[in-house]
Design a protein that fits this description.
InterPro entries: FAD-bd_FR_type, Flavoprot_Pyr_Nucl_cyt_Rdtase, FNR_nucleotide-bd, OxRdtase_FAD/NAD-bd, Riboflavin_synthase-like_b-brl. Its cofactor is FAD. Keywords: FAD, Flavoprotein. The chain is an alpha/beta fold. A hairpin with a 6-residue loop joins β1 and β2. The two termini are about 30 Å apart.
Amino acid sequence: MSTLGNIETSGVVGLTIVSFTTGDILYLTGTAKNLVGPLALEIMTRHAAITTVNVTGFVFVRDALPVRQQDGTPVERSPYSPKIKYLVEETGAKGLDSKEHKAKLREVVQVSSDLAVFKFQVISKPGAGDLRIRPGQAIVLDFMNWIGPPQYQHMKDTAPSSINDDRVRTWTVSSAHEERNATWFELIMREMKGGAVTGALFDRLRKYRSTRLGQRIVFDPPVVADIVGVTGDFFMDNDKLDALWVAGGIGITPFLAMLRALAERGSAAEGDVMLVLATREPSIMLYMMRPSLERIASTVRINITIFTHDSEFDYGNLKSNQNICVHRDRVVPDFWRDIPRGKDVFICGPSAFGDSVADGLRAVGFSPSQIHREGFY
């Protein structure tokens, strides 16, 4: 396509659209206009600069490209490609820009050098609907107003995705808010090196020089983000539990919300949960689970299996309905053979970890319909 400067000057544009599978090429010509700010937002949700094209002519040439994508190879998305954005009238845009709720970061508890629990207060407009979060669901936050847009760069080989960074991030909520309006929520974040959002938040946290691990820090002035929405079908319902939860590292987050929900249900909660956790930080993970484990009623049996190379950590005091078993190794495929086949399976962790677990479970007889996955990348 022509450069934005040329479009601004001439008002005309040419587009070349290539199919790498068929070799066909579509050439388009048309008139074009750059829209910035409110005019752009009237057309495309959450995107303040767009170019509109009115097609005036086309040429379609079959088999014009001399090269082809090799059969059976996956399509690799360019790291410079922006996220999908919706036109205002499209279904996918509904609810994405209502801005009925804002999240105000008030407190942080740092649990390791790169891991912290962030507590947000929900600020709602008058007349706004309830903010409902089921145990295990995620929340989408927009930090654009706090961080600001990225500076213009044509290319950035070290971090190509940052070119089109919209400052919108999704995190699984680690707190429980069953059957009620969420007036606050907690997120567990790990600092991503070079990350625009987590980097800024942890930089802010480091300014509190007296910060000690486990100390509660009040952010003043608070950080404010727009709540874009709540998402995800990876959640715990109200039925009697017979579940296998599998977490890789910080993939424990949705299960922390589920454990909290079980604690809040009291004696109304019942069932059997097997939690398999692969982690290099067992002490930290148990530290975050312990408050819920101490409150969960005896009507819920919880068996925790930890895979770790950490040789020394404190299990804490367990109730009679709870048990912890430790393996000083990685999760191996044979481990899944002894898991009762009737359990509903929930897996959360890095993509490769989740693939390995799902493959192992299917190999011993679990059906795909039993397996629910939530990933992070």
